[in-house]
Structure formats: C-alpha cells, structure tokens
Amino acid sequence: MAFGSKDFGLSRRTLLRTSAFGLVAAPALAACSNDGPALVRLRPNLTHGVAVGDPRTDGALIWARSDRPAKLTVETAATESFTDAKRFTGPLLTPDSDGTGRVRVNGLPAGRQVHYRVTLEGEDGAASEPITGVFRTVPTGASDIKLQWSGDVVGQGYGINPDLGGMKIFSTMAARDPHLFIHSGDSIYADGPLKESVPLPDGRVWRNVVTEAKSAVAQTLDQFRGNFAYNLTDQNYRRFNSSVAQLVQWDDHETVNNWYPGGSVAESKGYSERSMDTLATRSWQAFHEWMPLEPKEAADGRLYRKISYGPLLEIFVLDMRTYKDTNGGNNGPNGRIFGPAQTKWLIEGLRDSKATWKIVANDLPLGVIVKDGETAFEGPANGDPGAPSGRETEIAQVLSAIKANKVGGVVWLTADVHYTAAHRYSPERAAFTDFDEFWEFVSGPLNAGAFGPNPLDTTFGPEAVFVHAPAVQNASPLDGDFQHFGEVLIDGKSRELTVNLCDATGSVLFSQRLSPQGR
C-alpha cells in the first residue's frame, strides 16, 4: 500500500508540475521474472532525500522518508566505494509517522568523514534506488571547526522559485563544506500560504511552485506535514541536508505567528482551529517526524539539548518558545522565556563545560525589540530601558551566573528578525550591570522576506556594531543581498573563533575574530 499523495502535501497536479522542475523523485519499477510472465513491482521511493542530525563522536542520526511501508537501511564506509561497509537496519517506515524515520549509526571512528548510503526495502522485497551522502563524526581532539547558522525558510509568500533554480542559498552554503548547521527556527511557515505569482512593488513578479498543503494555513496534522514536505522538494535543500549535519530548533512559524502557550489565534486570521496549543501539538509531531532529530518520545519531551563537539566547542540549543509566558505579560518582576528547568539546565551546563567555546543557540534575540501588536512583545526585550523585568529576568539570571561562575568563551547565535547583525552587549552601557561583556550574532533569512533593523532594548547594553538590512521592508529574495547565513570558524591550533556574516552569494559582509579566554 502506497501512502496517499495528500499524506505529504503533494497533489497529482503538483507532482507533475514539480517533477518537471526536477524537484521530486519519480517512482521506480522493479521487474521480477520466473517461469511465468514478468511481475512488475513498485519499488519504495526515497521521496524527499536524506538528512543528517545531532552528530556524536561515533556517528549521527540518518533521516529518510518512504512513499510506502518499507524498512530503512543505512550503510556507512570510509570511502565512496563503500568497501567494507557497515550496515545498520532501521525501523519500518509506515503511515503512522508519515513514512518518515531515522536510524542512529554508531561505532564509527571519531573526527572522520563518513560516507553513507540509504536504501529502502519494501514488504515484497523490492529495493529503492539508493541515495548517498556524507557527514563528519565529532572529533575528540582539537581541530578546525566550521559551522553555519540561519533561519526563516519560505516566509512572507516567497517559496521555491523555479526561475531562480530554487533556494540556491543552500547550495552556496553546502559548497563551503561546513561540519554543522544550526537551523535557528522558522524552518517552515505553517501560517504562510503561497500563490503561484507574487507581484512586487517594482513591477517584477516572484513565481512559486505551489502544493496543496501550501495553498492554505496549516491547521491539520497533514497540513503541517505538507509544509515540511514542500521545502524538501527543493533540490538545493536536499543536497545540503545530505552532506551537512544539522542541529534544529523551532520557533513560532512552525505553528503560527508569535504563538505562545495558552494563546488563541485572532479570529480575523481565518483559522477554524484557534487554539495555539492544539496547533502547536500538531506542529510538534510533524516537526519531529520530518526533522533529523531524536523522536519526541526519546528526548523526555524536550527540544533543548547540548551537543559536545570536541574540546573546543559545546553548543547549547535552546527552546525559547515552548515555556514562554504570554506576549502581553512581558513586564513586572518575573517572567518566563526559558522556564525554570531550562534556566537551571543552561546555567549548570555552561558552568560545567570544559570546552573553549560555548555557543548558545537562542532562537529569539536577547535585546532586539520585536512587538506583537501595539503593546505586546514577542521576545525577551520589552522596550523598558531600565532594570530587567518580565522575561528579561531569566536572561539576567543566566548572565549573572555566567559571571559568578567565571565562564568564558560564551557566544550567542540567533535569527528570527530577518536581517543580519553583530551585537556587543556591555555592562558599561547597560541598566543591569551584573554580567560580563559578550557578543550575539544575528542571521537570516534563508528564503523569506527581509526586514529590519529593529530597535534595541538597552537593559543589557547592546551596541549594533554591524547591521545589514533592506531599505524597504519585506524585500523579496530576488534582492539576494538581504538573504543571509552566518559562519563560525574555530582554529584548531590558536583556538581563535571567527564569525562571518554572509549574504546569499557567500560574500562576507562582516567578520569578527574573538580570542579564547586568557589570551
């Protein structure tokens, strides 16, 4: 039994149209002959490429999706010839998970490039065509590290444009051969349906490939699944996923704009299901099905986690969405953006880390004022330049603990606001002074409208050392100068860390070199 095309958001008309652009794989036939007439079996098909996630010293997670019930198999080897390959058998991929699944490959040498090959075996024994990829296992010694980060994919009505060859920024990023990619959130725009053409203010027209699932806001589980499936019809994105290990976060647009626990979607938005909690539950399931991370059942219900990447780097991946309080209540003596458990986890993790550099991947910027309507606020900053209040109180707890525990080498990486910037926070400019100076770097969008810059809240003393934002709000990706990704380079010998802020072509717009503590 094949999964219905609606299960992953592609109608027959869409399949025909996107196949013409080379964006999805076609079903394959396998012939079986014996004494009787030849029997033709439909092979299972790897519908949306493969992906790598959450690497370790001895392996990583490998993700794939089948169009019909099939067993997932992954082979790994030191070379692309797959001599002496190791074989790992994964789960049976079924409609219960929308045909998605993953297997953790392990027992591999640390700090090495690994070639992998993914195949599916159907219930009748027919095998899929294989898809290959590469990843690097985490090193155990000091070595050069290159990671990238960004966010915001298919936002503001800007989807996969066949005139441009799709989302080519992912090919630009892949060509730079990073070890890791931090996807900082807004990996889909579930609240952003697409139209086949979008007239632009200057007379140009943006064209979109459109699927059934991307023709309306996502409210059902299948519609959320279809949003993730849509992005993976892009060949640039699939190529990137096959060769770069990802650490994924979620933010608001995986569910609905500016969502928070207990909230309701405004009646004017046209949703029949207005409970943000209900929408978030469906999004959470689709997110865990379609992203290369541990199944939600295996992570104690948490998305925040730490990834150790050798002696030079640890990455603290935050969840600033699931535990936050109401956007209209971001004031007063207390507030929540991390929640007590995540705040304690972050403070203790940074305190105990022996890595030279500790990257905190925060899906919402710390000091950028992002409003939700006239009086509410989306992120930690609330526009009050005085002492920490509301959600800022948890930020202050973390920053004070970093200072008290003498933790050095903390760098914050974020996205969300659709422009790129370098912010230096200093107690010398701040209303709250119990912290050490630090940097926060902002990147994005990857394929969405460009905005900014936003004003800064002075509670923690941020200075915008560099900003790259369009003169006109919601600039389309046709203006590629304002699509961005960031890059972090750590030198294995000097231990210096360099941050590059790049545009969609890979041109470096700004660079900042940081020395390790004590140098």
Task: Write up what this structure looks like.
Residues 4-25 and 31-39 have low confidence and may be disordered. With 519 residues, this protein is of the alpha+beta class. It contains seven helices and 26 strands. The chain is globular, with a radius of gyration of 23 Å. Strand 25 and strand 26 (508-514) form a beta hairpin. It is 15% helix and 28% strand.
Write the layout of secondary structure elements.
Layout: H1 12-20, E1 29-32, E2 39-42, E3 46-56, E4 59-66, E5 70-77, E6 86-93, E7 100-105, E8 113-122, E9 131-136, E10 145-150, H2 169-175, E11 180-183, E12 197-199, E13 205-207, H3 221-231, H4 235-243, E14 245-248, H5 276-290, E15 305-308, E16 313-317, H6 340-352, E17 357-361, E18 371-372, E19 376-377, H7 392-404, E20 410-414, E21 420-425, E22 438-442, E23 462-468, E24 484-490, E25 497-503, E26 508-514
* Content-based structural category: alpha+beta
How far the N terminus sits from the C terminus, by CA atoms, comes to 62 Å
Low-pLDDT stretches: 4-25, 31-39
Largest sheet: 9 strands, mixed
Number of β-strand runs: 26
Estimate the helix proportion, in percent. Answer: 10-25%
Q: Helix count?
A: 7
Radius of gyration: 23 Å
Strand share of the residues?
A: 25-35%
- Envelope shape: globular
Could you state the oligomeric state of the chains shown?
single chain
